[in-house]
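In practice, a research group might receive sequence data for several interacting partners and want a quick structural hypothesis before committing to experiments. The following worked case mirrors that situation: the sequences arrive first, and a predicted assembly follows.
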Amino acid sequence: MTLGAIRLFVTGGTFDKGYNELTGELFFQDTHLQEMLRLGRCLLDVEIRELMMVDSLEMTEDDRRIIVEHCERAPESRIVITHGTDTMVETAAHIGRRVQGKTIVLTGAMVPYKFGSSDGLFNLGSALAFVQTLAPGVYIGMNGRCFPWVRVRKNQAKGVFEAL
Amino acid sequence: MTLGAIRLFVTGGTFDKGYNELTGELFFQDTHLQEMLRLGRCLLDVEIRELMMVDSLEMTEDDRRIIVEHCERAPESRIVITHGTDTMVETAAHIGRRVQGKTIVLTGAMVPYKFGSSDGLFNLGSALAFVQTLAPGVYIGMNGRCFPWVRVRKNQAKGVFEAL
Amino acid sequence: MTLGAIRLFVTGGTFDKGYNELTGELFFQDTHLQEMLRLGRCLLDVEIRELMMVDSLEMTEDDRRIIVEHCERAPESRIVITHGTDTMVETAAHIGRRVQGKTIVLTGAMVPYKFGSSDGLFNLGSALAFVQTLAPGVYIGMNGRCFPWVRVRKNQAKGVFEAL
Amino acid sequence: MTLGAIRLFVTGGTFDKGYNELTGELFFQDTHLQEMLRLGRCLLDVEIRELMMVDSLEMTEDDRRIIVEHCERAPESRIVITHGTDTMVETAAHIGRRVQGKTIVLTGAMVPYKFGSSDGLFNLGSALAFVQTLAPGVYIGMNGRCFPWVRVRKNQAKGVFEAL
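A structural hypothesis for the assembly, expressed as tokens:
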């Protein structure tokens, strides 16, 4: 597969939460995506761009408009988006209704990467694989699975994504 | 995608090496694959079977015959195999020449999972994604990339897999 | 040194904070002290007792009374207390004014143990060493250093303990 | 306690073993002691000096002579030495017979620091505490305990240190 570059848009979410030693609170600092790709010895041509750094519960319509516009304008036809899980389905729907002809996979993590027990590296690995192999469309890639945006919801009680 | 179960054959390799405190040597104990799937919050229906636990440099023709037979006999049509990287290409070729009609992805790690800085979780995530989405055939999934078995070699000097 | 058992009182604090995957918040579940002693291959005779599991900013006078009483009544003359750092000095003062003839070391962590980058294991190792070697009195053991309770304050801006 | 600087001599041992991705073997590269002190948020004035980087089973009489000389010549009266566990007792005896008037604590690890499950940080924390509080003499600080060099042996079968 020679696919050209993959675009990786960072929007925040649990993935990138860190721990503030002085306040004892979780916060966003810089993205850990470069470090994660290095850890995975990833040899794909991935272009990272940080669009925002927010908790997905606080993501606004403006934020979603920015994400959609970047998906439309990106020269790459394969895009991975890291995103908080709480409103991932909603953002996927925004993109799915507007962006055509590109394979776009949203992924995230239930536990911050910086915690020892994060699922982030697993999800990133699978999202980058899905984005190379799936037909154009907008998907959510979590828990080893991949769902088209029109057929997925988050089960908030269990913290997992399910097929509709 | 409703795909039915994925078979995961464990053969050893760096993935599963542990550290023996008493001798200071690396060794194989039990596989960490269950733990890794749990860490990745993997919700796929994965059936793990440990076929052997060897360093791939010490894998014999008998070992490869056993792997091929298990691939042929497995009821699942989607199979991931964890394998040492040194002779992963050779085992892929053995399978590729004999097994038809199944999607089989070999994967591994450059650093043992039990070390903090392992690429194993990333590779496992991508292998499980590739095996769900690729057409029947035998592939090597490493470093975020996926190669058909006839078009890949390991660059021993760099420790990475490259297209032929 | 044959010292008999060391008592370890757990009161919560950053040491034992975990991450709730469903809410994205930090919380207290069970103590990680047993796991940490196992990780440190600790061979001391340590008796762990969980007194409470609170953020030290929310520790009440009742909580401090309970801690003091347990220090007084414990048959052991050497006691380590894990405690949130924010009010560690205050609790040390409560104990210091009331408990005589015992060596008591309060310790904590700036980063939860479950995060990859915690200082907890280092602090626990040093607290257990200080408690074996120091004369009776109440001390704070943090950052590799040990301070008598009457001569220490927390520098909140820097997140470290300093001599008065 | 205002003690002036503590000298930290690095000699190698399990503490500092890394994993060579290309060969799959354990090896010595650079010491991780600075990183460990940073992780422990250590605020002691510690001067690190790497004397050698060897497996303690391969330590020669010349190596031990070098260690003894550095202990004698160091301006600091408090010295921690990181050392492989297999011959730690032997090196402690060499130092104990020759160096007077200094508190010297040898410590090590059963599992390399770079592995997730290392006891190294715990042992380093306790060694730095013991060296500040014990009377002049040569000690082995492992497993939370501290032994004068004349009263300790390594139980090779269990991988722990015991009082003679």
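Before designing any experiment, note the following. The first strand of chain B starts at residue 6 and ends at 12. The interface with chain C takes residues 116 of chain B (CB under 8 Å).
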